[in-house]
Predict the structure.
Amino acid sequence: MSSTDHHHTNSESAAPDPAHQSSGDSQPGKGWGVFLFFMIGFVGSLLAGWVLFPDLLYSKKNQPIDFNHAVHLDIVDDGCNSCHYFEEDGSFTGMPDLSKCVDCHESAQTDDPEEIKFVDEYVTPGIEVPWLNHSKQPDCVFFSHSAHVMGAGMSCESCHGDIGTSEHTRVYEENRLTGYSRDIWGKSISRLGKPEPGEPLPMKMNDCAKCHEEETGHKGACFQCHK
Amino acid sequence: MKIDRRDFLTYTTAAVLGGAAGTMLTPAPWKLMDDAAIWTQNWPWTPVPETGPVTYKPSICTLCPGGCGINVRFVGNRPVKIEGLKDHPVNKGALCPMGLSGLQYVYGPDRIQSPLKREGKRGEGKWKKITWDEALAAVTEKLSALKKSENPQSVACITGADHGTLSNLIARFMTVYGSPNLMRQASAQDTGEQAVFLTQGKQGKPGFDIENADFILSFGAGILDGWGSPGRMFRLYGERNPKQKIIQIEPRLSDTAARANRWIGINPGTEGALALGLAHVIIKESLYSKNFIEKFAFGFDDWTDAAGIAHTGFATMTAAYSPKKVCEITGISKAIIETLAREFAGSSRPLAINGRGQGVLPGSIDETLAVHALNALTGNINQMGGVFVIPEPACAKWPDPGMDATASNGMQQPRLDGAGSDAFPNSRSLLNRVPGILNGAKGDSPVQALLVVDANPMYTLPDTAATQKAFDRIPFIVSFSSFMDETTAYADYILPNHAPLERYQDVPTPTGMSHQVISLAAPVMDPVYDTKHTGDAFIKIAKALDGFLGEAFPWDDYEAFLGDTLKDQWGVLKEKGVVEIALDPASSDGFVFNTASAKYEFYPAARAGEGKKDIDVLPSYMPAAVEGDEKEFNLLLFAYDSIRLSGSAMANAPFMTKIVDDTVLKKHMGIVEINPATAKKLNLREGHTAQLATPRGKASVIVHLYEGIMPGMIAMPRGLGHTAYSEYLTDKGTNINSLMAQVEDPASGLDMAWGIRARLSRA
């Protein structure tokens, strides 16, 4: 019988005065309750999205060797070019491979524990150092360092920041989904605001287009980067 | 406060809605959307380019006989691009579309990945993978059995070339085995070789110093359509001297004609008559080189031989080719003929060349003799900007191998194709005659086993249906191709060669080069599949056969053979890739000729003989009677060549088919070009589907109206309509060879056809 009763109650209560019914049947603060829960969800997701999400999205890794750019820059003759140079055909070497390091570090030059570790773990067995590249782009992107550095006369710092004077490597924040560095998107998860002076610039497609528009007057064509 | 089920649902909904609204105001959804797009690029099945250091390895392109230098770009261990080699003497950095797409021949879907044995019916495409030992044993067993039955001459071999060490190796194999039937498909190169042999007494290929000529009179040679060495010809146009004139004579406005200084339309097949008409004007107006004619020429004027018999000379003979008569034959006006002759003879370094399109068809020997006579009239032989004879490269001569009685007997049998016989003494190979001979043979087929190397006769020979019928009669066909071409698809065993970039190959002086350039195509990569160099396969088979074959091949492998054969040059070739014997007009032969008269023979005495009239010996014009009844087939169909299509045994790479115009190929339909006036008469309009019929075949085609083709004629390109290979080539357009018939040149046995009669009707 209960189900019939319930049905009965329902239809009866719905019919005569819905407004009265509504305030009479539930608590007077139900509207506030709805608002409260809405706000809990709203604020909670804001916090999650702005605070928790970036921490969850990126894993933190350290470079295999704590490389000191400042020390090297003091010793070498030709600035960044000493290790990161252009080939004759204009292609850019990027990160030097082990053979370039071995030119100087066949054995440890100092008693710095990082250098000793480098020699023992990589130079002696002849293993390339698995450096984590903060600026690595997907394979579908064609980027010519030559056009920017040799052609447009840009400095390394203008995109890569003051990395040349750093004494320690930065923590590498790897996007768990894509595998690329957080630097590509930019430190700011909202992509609002500009990076501090000395920080690397973000390197998403829109960043390329924005700079190209400012410098050359147009964003460029698809095939310039996507061959 | 009591929360019932309804409240719970309400509050949860509120929280979810709040969460959703809040989330939309955080970067999370937008960031995740972007990341998800990039995440898809990391899926393991998404193709990713190789990474690694960029390096270059130089080599030589062996996809055609052009012999262009290439530079292969590597990323890590993967070749990713082919570029022209800047300092190679042939192409100096330029490269044709085929050369540029060379990597698709290595990695493409047409590659044969291991030795195969036919399972189903011939051409059905059912294959069984076998090991190399099994494949070599099967071929050895068959050859051994044929030899035991005293029938070695029934083994025939078709190769792609008869220059280079691989063909030397195969020739040695065939000789010691005991078969004279080593053949290849002849081209304009053959008629060119015969012309310089008949007139100058020299064995070798004609070479043209086209870069230094100031007036190039091209009788249909597709200089920009793949004639000679495409890379070299591209460079010629790229660095063209504005004073250099190119006159293109052909019935269709080809790419070459469009970029020439002048295009002169001519009735197809009448080029020889025009050459003789030009000679007539040059002689009549006394514009020829007196020095050359008086001191170094034989048979120019009338003469009397030792027996006292009076003979007609070239000058008297050309009297029959007055501008009026030549105008009737060629359709070119008298005034143009006269002006052209004067301009040609009046230039300081004029050069006449022929070979229709890429020179795929040999054409008439008389036509080539007539064109060559123009070069002689102006004394432009062995001169800067003229014609040279390029000898065969000096290779080590191996001691004559021992031969058993069966082999000796086999070698004394006449060649199946009749080349070198009394009828065709100067021809080296007449593969064009073979299908007819096989189809006409009574009883067992005279060919019991066929070996095919670097050739695709079932596609490239005219009259595909007859060729297939002939091949049906051959009980045992072995293909050494790297690709599933038409002939290979019809074979019983496939012993796949390495792809061009994976193997050693010496490249003799490319077609048309005016000085000797010998190159070595060294492998730039390890073989991708389970393939074997055809040279190695032949050495292995030789060693496994009885008799003297093993002795004749003491080398361990082809590389050892190559090194021993190239002797002194091997070291330099391995290091530099090229040996150049530079052109030096001062010390070159000058006007030294090796003919009986020791002069340039306008009257080629080598052609004279019992019962031959002077008119048969002197170059003359005989209309090539192309097949077909004029009433039934009211149009003339001819094939043209394009640099974007390959009509040779090495078919198009997918990249090349991509750049074919939609006036050539539309989806799976080939397009036929027709003059708008002719189309109007036939009631055909642009884009109409029509039935094209010749006495040899039929095809469905699309009509394209083209002002650049002479009225009454229709044209289609070579290189389409494959029935084998993969989806990138199969059933795209029409194989024009399947509509064609050969016309045997009575003087040489070579195919002198330039077209066939045809009919086009609304489908």
